[in-house]
Amino acid sequence: MRTTLLLAIALCISCLNLQAQTKKPKRKPNPVFAPIKDDPKLPRVLLIGDSISIGYTLPTRKLLMGKANLHRIPTNGGPTTKGLESIDAWLGKGKWNLIHFNWGLHDLKYM
Known about the structure:
Layout: H1 2-21, E1 44-49, H2 51-63, E2 69-72, H3 80-91, E3 98-102
Parallel strand pairs: 1-2, 1-3
């Protein structure tokens, strides 16, 4: 019985060790967060938002192709508190012709 128990424990430890050594495949970068090369003739638009805005960034970028340089923040904007903490960094040093805000849905979980 004792030998069986020790063998079971050793097997569990070796399985955990093997699992820790297994390399996870690298995730492809999300094209939503890819840097945008501005066309200086077009207005600059910035999307600031949560996961909902991540979902419509690429279709909106496609719709505005040739009409505007559509940028977005490099992350999920999360709750309003994160936005307030990060707004200066997200705005950066460039000038924006239009800033679209869409975040705060995460705030509902704090109400």
